[in-house]
């Protein structure tokens, strides 16, 4: 009998060690729960508990190869239709909108490290989706990667402010982090201009121009959009931009159906990346989910900011139907 399958009782292996041993037998040796129970001389229910504990302690990492999600027909259709480098399309499942968002965020977290290389400068936006991506990334280390915060700070009540998204992303990638130490929007355009000229802020903004890859989500122009609930824009700001033809929001900037920035008074008060710095990147990874995000996603793609997309099969079909 192989060494890994010799009978070892729970008395010989205990505590954390028995949890690890049960996990190894199950995931590496390919034994079933009944076989493990016999080898360890415990009940099958106890083995189930050991495996559950292993998952809860983070001992187990289960992932599917990215090619599973990038090479099927719907992903290929999305890539060809919109001239993308690749699309990562997941099954939406039968759950709630919240569960669908979490699936897409987890998919992006699984895919992102494979899109990065030593020396990359990754710009990270903000919002619920980006926060969940940052949280879901398994801790890794890619040498000489720098994460830059793309939008200034804001007093959001939701816990996914821009500085949190970039800091958590950098921590999980083992990367250097450049935060943008200024508010995302100020009350006075002259004050915003002076802040942008401050040496420290200016150097942080200059770093955004060196990003070769970026991670962002598309925001809607609906009344409950995060750009309003976060305080980045007022409802009157939103209404004005919609009248000017706004169909979406990208990194705090309102865009039209062609993905072009709509200049307005709000832009003069903002501190963050401008859309011209998002165009033509090696990787512009757009992560969004849901019917309300279809128009903003199509706008971002039309503007030349997007090279890669992560979304669900349901949203992907809506994108293709809307574009036809």
TrEMBL record:
It comes from the Bacteria. Residues 19-60 form the Terminase ATPase subunit N-terminal domain. SUPFAM superfamilies: Homeodomain-like, NagB/RpiA/CoA transferase-like. Residues 68-321 form the Sugar-binding domain. The keyword Transport does not apply. The keyword Transcription applies. Keywords: DNA-binding, Transcription, Transcription regulation. Belongs to the SorC transcriptional regulatory family. This is Transcriptional regulator. It comes from Parasedimentitalea denitrificans. The lineage of its organism: Bacteria, Pseudomonadati, Pseudomonadota, Alphaproteobacteria, Rhodobacterales.
């Amino acid at each position: 009998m192989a060494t890994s399958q010799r009978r070892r009782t729970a008395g010989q292996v205990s505590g954390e060690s028995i949890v690890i041993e049960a996990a190894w037998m199950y995931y590496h040796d390919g034994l079933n729960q009944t076989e493990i129970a016999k080898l360890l001389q415990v009940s099958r229910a106890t083995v189930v508990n050991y495996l559950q504990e292993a998952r809860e302690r983070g001992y187990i990492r289960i992932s599917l190869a990215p090619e599973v999600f990038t090479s099927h027909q719907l992903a290929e259709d999305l890539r060809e239709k919109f001239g993308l480098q690749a699309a990562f399309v997941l099954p939406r499942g039968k759950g709630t909108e919240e569960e669908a968002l979490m699936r897409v965020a987890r998919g992006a977290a699984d895919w992102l490290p494979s899109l990065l290389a030593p020396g990359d400068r990754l710009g990270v936006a903000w919002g619920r989706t980006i926060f969940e991506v940052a949280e879901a990334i398994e801790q890794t280390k890619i040498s000489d990667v720098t994460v830059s915060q793309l939008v200034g700070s804001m007093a959001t009540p939701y816990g996914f402010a821009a500085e949190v998204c970039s800091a958590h992303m950098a921590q999980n990638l083992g990367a250097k982090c450049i935060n943008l130490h200024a508010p995302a929007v100020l009350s006075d355009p002259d004050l915003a201009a002076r802040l942008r000229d401050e040496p420290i802020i200016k150097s942080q903004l200059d770093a955004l121009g060196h990003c070769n890859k970026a991670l962002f989500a598309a925001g809607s122009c609906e009344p409950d959009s995060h750009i309003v609930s976060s305080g980045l824009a007022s409802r009157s700001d939103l209404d004005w931009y919609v009248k000017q033809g706004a169909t979406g929001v990208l990194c705090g900037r309102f865009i039209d159906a062609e993905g072009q920035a709509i200049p307005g008074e709000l832009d003069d008060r903002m501190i963050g990346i401008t859309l011209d710095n998002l165009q033509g990147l090696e990787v512009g990874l757009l992560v969004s989910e849901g019917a309300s995000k279809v128009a903003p996603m199509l706008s971002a793609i039309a503007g030349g900011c997007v090279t890669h997309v992560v979304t669900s099969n349901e949203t992907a079909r809506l994108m293709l139907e809307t574009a036809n």
